Amino acid sequence: MYQKIYEEENVDKYFSINFNNTVRKVTTSYYAHKVHDGDQIFEELKKQFLNSLMKKNKDFLTLKDYELAFYGNGRIATLKQSSSFEIDQRFRGKPALHFLYQNEGEEFRRMISPYIYLYMDKDNYTGKDEDIQLEMIK
Prior knowledge:
This protein is of the alpha+beta class. Helix content is 33%, strand content 17%. It has helices spanning 2-8, 11-27, 30-34, 38-53; strands spanning 59-60, 66-71, 76-81, 99-101, 110-112, 118-119, 135-136. The strands form two sheets. Strands 2-3-6-7 form a four-stranded antiparallel sheet, with no helix packed on it. It is globular and about 55 Å long.
């Protein structure tokens, strides 16, 4: 689902998923205290988001050789690339979803790896593994 948002360059879905999480991070960081104008912060974040989303010639790598990593006493999960030495060191330990792109005039491709964290509301857990429904943290 997240890869599809990038492929379609769907700005509305991208912002709806990422905005609240980013606002939380910014308001607790040094960045928010350094820049006091809320509109300026929002415009800067919007610019950064769109820069990532609108990259041209995105080359998504196959979702393989990944590990399921748990955080927060097992309540939060993410998929990340294997830490194995057989993996290209550029990808080792990075998020499982990533793509390469190349800016015009550059000789090499760069990588973007959006971190996606998943959780399950404890009230929705039935005790059966087959009923587990993970959601993205927004």
